[in-house]
Amino acid sequence: MTAYVILATRRLGRVSLAAPIARTTSQTVKGYVALTKPRIIELLLVTTLPTMVVADRGVPGFWLIVATLIGGTLAAGGANALNMVYDRDIDAIMERTKNRPLVTGVMSPMAAAVFAFGLEGLSFLTLATFVNFLSAWLAMAATAFYVLIYTMWLKRRSKQNIVIGGAAGAVPVLIGWSAVTNSLSWTPVLLFAVIFIWTPPHFWALAVRYRDDYRAANVPMMPVVASLRRTTLEILIYSVVLWVVTMWIGPIAHLGWIYALSATVLGGLFTFYALRLYRHAREDKADVAEAMRLFHFSITYLTALFVFMAVDVLVRNH
Fold first, then answer.
1. DSSP string covering 283-294, please?
2. How many domains does one find in the chain?
3. The Cα angle at residue 199 between residues 97 and 148, in degrees rounded to 5
4. pTM, full prediction
5. Range of the domain at 112
């Protein structure tokens, strides 16, 4: 059932969309859940909890963990929903995003925006009440950066969009650390740097696969505005830098051999996949299968790195 009629005209660079038609309760609920981009939130939470363990040098209190994860989930969900509200015009053009709820008409843009701001309000209230104000303000800062700096400014204007915009996705580790300590230090800054540096090779690998999508939507992602040879070289460079930075965390955070070994092996594998992608790339052609292999491994990489970080702390302190 087609819910939106995409008109042929554009108004101020936005696709004009007709009002949504009726949906079942189940479809509406699923649509609102989809607005929050649950799979992205899962990855954010995977980095937050181990960071809390490292900050506590053990397992933090159960209710502190629950409140921090709920607050972080609400903040990230609201930011992702606002991203979909603003990007609904290009989402309608791209094959990868054409089934998102604001394109298919599950709800109106106004309803989605109200939902998003409601999530942000609940996030701030949860974190400020049950965690601390530093964590609450960090969550709001991440949302503001993601929506205002990345979505509304950089994404459609700069090939460095995902490089700078990736800072928003790195804030959850700061929230996790501040939830436990009510402060920040060099360790969470390095954890922030890991995710910040990880984001470009992770996302550019996916962008190689959907290069034509981004070109059709006139979004200047690196594979669109640069040759694929150049893009894959930058992916390789970021991968090597990431490997180096992860090795610094051990001595700074007082981690042991479990983390050192896992960071060494995982970093080596990440660089190996990036090197394979680069070696198969030409000026205007890249191996899509290799790109997706790197993309999927990058998710496993980040998850495993932070899990082993927490395991190292728990093993050494018990």
1. TTB--HHHHHHH
2. 2
3. 65
4. 0.90
5. 1-182
Co-location of 210 and 295 in the same domain: yes
Distance CA 305, CA 265 (A): 10
Alpha-carbon span 65 to 273, nearest angstrom: 34
Write the CATH number for 56.
Answer: 1.10.357.140
For residues 128 and 275, membership in a common domain is answered with no
CA distance 312 to 206: 31
CA–CA gap between residue 146 and residue 274 (Å, rounded): 27
Residue pair 48/65 in contact (Cβ under 8 Å)? The answer is no
Shared-domain flag, residues 239 and 300 = yes
DSSP secondary structure letter of residue 5? -
Nearest to 306 by CA among 197, 146, 166, 194: 194
Residues 72 and 141 in one domain: yes
DSSP states of 109-165: HHHHHHHHHHHHHHHHHHHHHHT-HHHHHHHHHHHHIIIIIIIIIITTT-TTHHHHH
pLDDT tens for the chain, residues 1 to 318: 333 223 222 332 344 443 455 567 888 899 999 999 998 888 888 999 999 999 999 999 999 999 999 999 999 999 999 999 999 999 999 998 999 999 999 999 999 999 999 999 999 999 999 999 999 999 999 999 999 999 999 999 999 999 999 999 999 999 999 999 999 999 999 999 999 999 999 999 999 999 999 999 999 999 999 999 999 999 999 999 999 999 999 999 999 999 999 999 999 999 999 999 999 998 888 899 999 999 999 999 999 999 999 999 999 887
Number of Cβ atoms within 10 Å of the Cβ of 282:
11
8 A C-beta contact, residue 268 and residue 243: yes
Residues 124 and 169 in one domain: yes
Rounded CA gap, 99 and 186, in Å? 42
Domain of 310: which CATH number?
1.20.120
Nearest-5° angle of CA 195, CA 218, CA 239? 25
Q: Chain-centre distance of CA 185, in angstroms?
A: 23
Displacement of CA 275 from its chain's centroid (Å): 23
Q: How many CB atoms lie within 10 A of CB 193?
A: 18
